[in-house]
Design goal:
With 405 residues, this protein is of the alpha+beta class. It is built from 9 helices and 16 strands.
């Protein structure tokens, strides 16, 4: 028992360090000012940033190859740096300035001026060592394991302890809760979902989809939003706000983004992630996305609804959990997990307000939850159309604007 407590205390200390890099990547990723319109993460729209590399994605650079003064996160893929920073921030509920220097709005992310940054490095190293030596390299403990949203590790239970409720006895003649042996199979659950949304034939007929509505972020910003998708792998989306207009598109192995700061290509890991998130059949054809599917041992709850939970593993070893309404079969929630060297980062998407659109039921409200509060958003669609003509030229990269000499 003493040894276990000692291990937990060690891990707790390790978590403090988690915060070391919280903002470093956020500002350096896209623009000189971390909160400019160009930054999708500040508008709650950077979902692809948490999607791990697909099996065919090109080899990307690591943080030490891109950033300055990286000492303990060597080997971390550059695309995971921002999610890891946000994970640190959420685990300790602190801001970037806890470890990083900001002088009148100018960030010096490579500065070691603050002692908290060096302490964070020590704690990150400790977490890495605990996972390596105690859990055979598995990512079992992280900053959140002990901090739970506090600067100091939570090492003592709060008093008074809650009194556990007695387990209710089943009513006479009541059927016991379903066990693994009586739960439906993954195929049965997904097949019921396919039928619930209109059937495989209706899904297979889909060639294009156009959705219009708005996005509201956790900071209260509301943007007008439109996305046009064309099978198998083309999509164009546009975001409009008082700050300006931003659009981006993917088509095959090409991607681009245009915003008030200019036009640039989307490549490498960012392109692979965006292609995955903007797939026309992302939430319609599920079986094809997983190499294995496993049903949970019992029903769970989302609000008042009973749900069946399927855990799926993708070809690139990414794990996801899918939550299906036990009664009507609809997909209510999808949680993905990105495994990094310092922790497992969750991202949750909830689907609500299903409506029939030309024979296919689709959600008109989609909520995104992430460890970074800036990325929490709600998409509300006012119009969805299927199999309508889509201008192919929208997927092509526009000509760069000429600058005055």
């Amino acid at each position: 028992m003493k040894l276990n407590i000692l291990k937990l205390l060690i891990v707790a200390l390790a978590c403090v360090s988690a915060i070391v890099v919280i903002t470093k990547a956020r500002a350096q990723k896209s623009s000189p000012a971390p909160r400019q319109f160009v930054s999708l993460s500040s508008l709650g729209m950077a979902a692809p940033a948490q999607t791990p590399a697909a099996a065919t994605a090109p080899q990307e650079k690591t943080t030490e190859q891109v950033q300055k003064n990286i000492k303990v996160l060597k080997g971390l893929p550059q695309s995971q740096l921002i999610p890891v920073m946000n994970f640190f921030s959420a685990s300790l509920r602190v801001r970037c300035t806890f470890c990083h220097v900001n002088n009148n709005g100018v960030w010096a992310f490579d500065s070691d001026e603050k002692p908290e940054k060096e302490r964070a490095r020590e704690m990150i190293t400790m977490v890495l060592n605990v996972n390596k030596t105690t859990f055979k390299g598995g990512v079992e403990v992280s900053c959140y394991t002990c901090h739970r949203g506090n600067r100091n590790p939570v090492s003592l239970p709060p008093l008074p302890l809650p009194i556990p409720s007695p387990r209710p006895s089943p009513a006479p003649g009541a059927q016991a809760s379903p066990t693994l042996a009586t739960m439906p199979s993954a195929d049965e659950i997904i097949n019921k979902y396919v039928v619930a949304i209109g059937g495989q034939a209706a899904i297979d007929k889909l060639k294009t989809r156009v959705m219009r509505g708005n996005i509201k972020t956790s900071s209260g910003v509301t943007l007008t939003y439109q996305i046009e998708q064309s099978a198998p792998d083309r999509a164009h989306e546009i975001f409009m706000s008082e700050q300006g207009t931003m659009e981006r598109a993917v088509s095959g192995n090409m991607g681009w983004e245009k915003n008030p700061q200019g036009l640039h290509d989307i490549t490498g890991q960012q392109l692979a992630d965006l292609k995955m998130s903007l797939q026309l059949f992302r939430n319609l054809k599920l079986k094809e996305q997983y190499t294995s599917l496993r049903v949970g041992g019992r029903k769970e709850k989302i609000g008042e609804r009973d749900v069946y939970v399927i855990t799926g593993t993708t070809a690139d070893k990414k794990r996801e959990r899918l939550f299906f309404d036990a009664e009507n079969g609809l997909l209510l929630r999808r949680v993905s997990y990105t495994e990094t060297m310092i922790g497992i980062i969750p991202e949750q998407t909830d689907f609500e307000d299903y409506r029939d659109v030309e024979g296919v039921k689709l959600p008109f409200t989609v909520r995104l939850s992430a460890v970074d509060a800036n990325r929490v958003s709600t998409r509300t669609f006012t119009e969805i159309k299927l199999n309508v003509p889509v201008d192919d030229s929208k997927f092509n990269k526009p000509a760069a604007a000429k600058t005055n000499p």
